[in-house]
Every structure is written in C-alpha cells, then in structure tokens.
Design brief:
The chain is an all-alpha fold. The protein is built from 6 helices and no strands. The relative contact order is 0.11. Helix 2 (22-36) runs antiparallel to helix 3, helix 4 packs across helix 5 (66-72) and helix 4 crosses helix 6.
Amino acid sequence: MKKYRTIREIEEEYLRKHPEEIDDYIDILFEEYSKDGDTGVLLASLRVVSRVKGVSQTAETAGLSRKGLQKALSEDGNPKFESVNAILHAMGYRLTTEKLEAHSGQ
C-alpha cells in the first residue's frame, strides 16, 4: 500500500530546500490567521518551521523543553501567549501590530 505524504510533510520538505522562503511563509501564515483565526493551522505551521529550524535548538532558545515545545505547537495545544512569543523569538521573529483599515478612524 502506498503511503501518502501530508501537506505538512510537503511544506517541511519544501522549506528545507528553500529556507529563504521561510520569511514569506511566516508572513502569509499570520496574514491568514488574522482572517480566519484558525489556531490549529497556525500551530501546525509553526511546528513545521520549528522542525526546519531545529526543534531542540528552538526549544532551548525559547526556554522550553523539546517536549514542551511540541506540546505548545500540537494541534490540541493551547499555548500561553508568552510561549508563542518566546517560540517566535527563538525562530527569529516577533509579533507586531498593523492597524486595520476598518478601524483607521478610531
């Protein structure tokens, strides 16, 4: 029986071959999250990036155990804001704000 790869496996392979595209991947990831609020997809995609960048190194830099990082980014994960922020910093990114056009007059 043929084993099919998941979309996450394909994304990971692609990003390993094209690490220069991780920045755009992260930008699109958060842009989509701001529209649909799908935390599961956000965490799964951050898990892909953590594997490409190295789970152990990302966890250590974020001040988490490897297991703690994996749990925080699991599909059932409900990480604290501080954990997500620390993970992003460990990956070389930060959260920023952008004014919504609909709220520009307020």
